[in-house]
Amino acid sequence: MIVVIDKFNIGDVVQLKKVHPCGENKWEVMRTGVDFRIKCLGCERQVWLARREFIRRVKKVISTSSDDSIKK
Question: Measuring CA to CA, how many Å separate 21 from each of 12, 18, 24, 29, 49?
Fold first, then answer.
């Protein structure tokens, strides 16, 4: 069994495997934890996903947040 631990921070921009109906596939991470809240950068729609579902849907991290003061 291979265990992959992905770390996502608030403010990261990720690309999901499927395109949102508005045509955008870039999402900003708004909340992390057991559930993730992500916001579509095309239409501003916010979606809640379970951690397992979020990690399964992420294709790649486009940009990471540079502000570490949020985590403290």
Answer: 21, 9, 7, 18, 17
> Residue 61: how many CB atoms within 10 A of its CB?
15
How far are the Cα atoms of 43, 47, 67 from residue 27, in angstroms, in the given order? 10, 10, 18
Q: How far is CA 11 from the centre of its chain?
A: 9
pLDDT (tens, 9 = 90+) of the chain, 72 residues, equals 444 556 889 999 999 999 999 999 999 999 998 999 999 999 999 999 999 999 999 998 888 876 554 444
**DSSP designation for 37:** E
